[in-house]
C-alpha cells in the first residue's frame, strides 16, 4: 500500500491532460462552437476572403477583417454582438481572452514591428 502511494504522483503526472493557455486559445480560435474564427479572419487574424461574387458593380469580395491589433475589450464586445456577417458567439470572457492571448502571441513579431513603425512617425 505504501508503495502505491509513492507511485501515485507519478501516475497522476503521466495521466495529466493539461493543455497550455496558448493551445487552449489556438483550439478556440480554430473551432469555437463549430464556426471557426480562422475561416474569416485567417490563420493568424490578418483577415481573409470569405467569398467572392459578381454583381452589377463587377467582382465583389466579402472579407473578414484584420483583428490582430484589436484590444481584448473590442474582441469581447464584438464576439458577443450581432453583426451582418460574423456570427454571434456565446464565449465566456476567459475564452475570448484565450483567443486574444493566442493571437497576441502568434503575432508577436508583427505587433512589435508595427509598434516601432508607429513610434517613429
Ligand atoms: C463568417 C465569418 C466570420 C467568423 C466565423 C468570425 N468573424 Fe469576426 N468578423 C467578420 C466580419 C465580416 C467582420 C466585420 C464586421 C461585420 O461586418 O460582421 C468581423 C469583425 C470582427 C471583429 C471586430 C473588429 C474589427 O476590427 O473588424 C472582431 C474583434 C472579430 N470579428 C473577432 C472574431 C473572433 C474572435 C471570431 C471567432 C470567435 C470571429 N471573429 C469569427 C467575419 C467573421
Helices and strands in order:
Layout (H helix, E strand, L loop, with lengths): L1 H13 L6 H10 L7 H4 L7 E7 L2 E6 L8 H8 L13 H14 L1 H12 L2
Bound molecules: heme C.
Please explain how this structure is put together.
The protein is mainly alpha-helical. The chain has a single domain, classed as Cytochrome Bc1 Complex, Chain D, domain 2 (Orthogonal Bundle). 50% of the residues lie in helices and 11% in strands. It contains 6 helices and 2 strands, in the order H-H-H-E-E-H-H-H. The chain has a two-stranded antiparallel ribbon. A hairpin with a 2-residue loop joins strand 1 (49-55) and strand 2 (58-63). 14% of the residues are buried. Residues 32, 35, 37, 39-41, 50, 64-65, 67, 70, 74-75, 78-79, 83-87, 89, 99 line the site of heme C (HEC).
Main CATH class: Mainly Alpha
Q: Separation of termini?
A: 70 Å
The SSE order reads HHHEEHHH
Radius of gyration: 20 Å
Overall 3D shape: globular
Mean pLDDT: 86
Alpha-beta content class: mainly alpha
Strand order of the largest sheet: 1-2
Number of helices: 6
- How would a textbook summarize the main sheet? 2 strands, antiparallel
Low-pLDDT segments, ≥5 res? none
Oligomer: single chain
> What would the CATH topology be?
Cytochrome Bc1 Complex, Chain D, domain 2
In total, the number of domains comes to 1
Level of helix content?
A: 40-55%
Strand content: 5-15%
Amino acid at each position: 500500500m505504501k508503495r502505491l502511494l509513492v507511485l501515485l504522483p507519478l501516475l497522476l503526472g503521466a495521466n495529466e491532460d493539461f493543455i497550455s493557455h496558448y493551445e487552449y486559445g489556438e483550439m478556440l480560435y480554430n473551432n469555437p462552437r463549430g464556426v471557426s474564427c480562422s475561416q474569416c479572419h485567417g490563420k493568424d487574424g490578418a483577415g481573409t476572403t470569405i467569398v467572392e461574387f459578381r454583381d452589377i458593380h463587377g467582382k465583389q469580395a466579402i472579407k473578414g477583417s484584420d483583428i490582430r491589433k484589436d484590444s481584448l475589450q473590442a474582441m469581447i464586445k464584438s464576439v458577443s454582438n450581432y453583426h451582418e456577417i460574423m456570427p454571434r458567439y456565446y464565449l465566456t470572457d476567459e475564452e475570448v481572452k484565450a483567443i486574444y492571448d493566442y493571437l497576441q502571441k502568434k503575432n508577436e513579431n508583427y505587433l512589435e514591428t508595427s509598434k516601432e513603425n508607429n513610434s517613429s512617425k
